[in-house]
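Troubleshooting: if your tokenizer reports a length mismatch, compare against these two reference records.
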Amino acid sequence: MAPLTILVASYTDSIYTLSFDPTPLTGSPTLKLLARTPVGHHPSWIGSHPSNKSLIYTGLEQADGEVVAIKYGMGGTVEGGEVVARAKSGGADPCTLLVTEDELIIGNYSSGTIATLPISTSAPYILSPNPWTLSMPFEHVGRNKARQSSSHPHQVILNPLNQTEKELLVPDLGADKVWRLTKRSDGKWSICGHIDFEAGGGPRHVAARGSTLYTLLELTLKLAVHTFPPLPAPPTPLTSLSTLSASPTLDTMLAAEILLPEPNASFPETFIYTSNRNDPHSEGDTIAIFSLAAGEGQPELVNEVRTGLTHVRGMAFGGDDDKYLVVGGVEGGGVKVFERTDGGKGLKEIAKLSEDVGRPTGFLWY
């Protein structure tokens, strides 16, 4: 099997390119640094163009937010990228991006705004310097006053369950809501509904399967489950589970990422994977694994895997049949690749890179 390439977002000034070889000629799987591409302050989220994976977009988490387009493979190699376009993000601290065929959708965390820019797979790549923006509603300061004093969009994602009309889902950590947006006749996004969550929960990221929505609540470390029929029918709450087998030992412990890989020949059962961070345990943060064997609406925590990493923020599946999971520790431990075991119920560390990648926050299998 040929080595796989992984791009790494970070809380440094660079995007890193790694090579993961699961089957070297001799020895164990390897993970090594190929290149470092400087792009600007805190490129914490990365996404590829759906029809041209060599075109990558990232957001710079800074007060005067920017988005950057990076082209890989221009010199005949995917190792390092070249910045080919920049634009304002339409707000402060863009922490999430969604790349569609002709539109870049941006979530600006600190300013509480959603923004869009027209894009192309050819120069100039970003077709306007002026983003269209939408300010998210905000009613009152939330239970967690330090984190919920304003709207904080933390993800922009197309609803995977809506096959007839494009619908955008926006988890808002500050407002304890997931906003539902659809496009108006003029092509602009408009809020058409929302889902409420427990006070102080802080919805961060979502995933969906069948007719069910799973929302990771960052501030209370919970997995909230709703039925999720098409608009205009309202969702129905089903259950809410802790992402930890024991109560948090510190108020600073938080949930971070939720992944729901598609079942396949190698892993026919469905599992949800969520990451927790800031665990004071000597063996680092955990990844919680939930089984859906009892049904879409009844996740069951079946395993916790200690990562040996500190402040696990991002993780992503890749390789054949999503066999591998790459995970990073922003505050320590570097980057590791785990292999799914026991049909997906377990994870086994098979490769790591301890020092060469600074403060990894997100990943993209190239």
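Reference record two:
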Amino acid sequence: MAAKVVNYGIIGVGMMGREHLINLHHLRTEGVAVVCIADPHLPSQQLALDLARSFHWPLKVFSGHHELLDSGLCDVLVVSTPNMTHYQILMDIINHPKPHHVLVEKPLCTTINDCKQVIDAAKRRPDMLIQVGLEYRYMPPVAKLIDIVKSGTLGQVKMVAIREHRFPFLVKVNNWNRFNCNSGGTLVEKCCHFFDLMRLFVGANPVRVMASGGIDVNHKDEIYDGKVPDIIDNAYVIVEFDNGSRGMLDLCMFAEGSKNEQEISVVGDVGKGEAFVPESIVRLGTRTEGREGVQTLKAEDHRIKYDGLHHGSSYLEHLNFLYAIKGNNTVQAPPVDLNDGLVSVAVGVAAQLSIEKGQFVKIEDVLNDDAFKSSS
């Protein structure tokens, strides 16, 4: 008997929604089909339909997620709508009578309170898996560095430095990503990926954050409905962890002249590892062997059938989530769970607050005091 096809619906088919559609097409041999989409934006609908036709996938189109949920067509939902809509859509999915497994794009939500409410609601639905789209951990050089750290080769990790030097934010539908109130702020919207990676590398939880950042180059001459964008375009963020290790993020979003977009350094008391994206190499050395002993390794994952916008990580994200869904006909733990989503948002919120207040911000305060939130 042929294995049952897992039917997907995509809520939000802007740039990332269509990226998910392409990735899922490349997973069709795993028993995957996208059967419907929901998006009120007609041009996005049309672009998604054109893609699906090229794949010979007939799609049912809905203007909103309520109609899609009520259709009963889907087993799994991908939520790739603007950040500020995640909370209500997730709550509607969780509270719907029919269970749906969910992959929600990062960030989980734009505020701590919304994240916590989603987590509380999800506890009442053990029949559902909800995974957060923190897919950078699947990029081949990053995944290889994670494996090196887990092997103990570097010893006890003491310091993690992540540099992202890249291009400015892309144009999104109705320019929603130009304002903190919609995105959660740059350090939530973009950098939750890196705070998630720091936590993986050090094997500990964040306790305190200090940041400095500003709006120095990008979007300063843009005006939308009479408002100038308020998203920062560069920052330094220091994160302290409960095992004494430290992380640092160096973000610049006007650095198109960079060989690598991400450069990651993890230093333990025995050795040092580095990962470079998109160069897709890893360097590894130890204190005893010194500079002459540094190895350069090519990072590849031959499971990847589509590189896409994120160097194959979105493909692997979907593959791992699909395996969790299919696991022995029982509900398995998602590879990236809601708590991972919450903590990555909490560090971003703390960093945004630190810039505003000019002081260290404790993660405990951000998580436990709902009144202690960004004024942006």
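Descriptive notes for reference record two:
- The radius of gyration is 21 Å.
- The mean pLDDT is 95.
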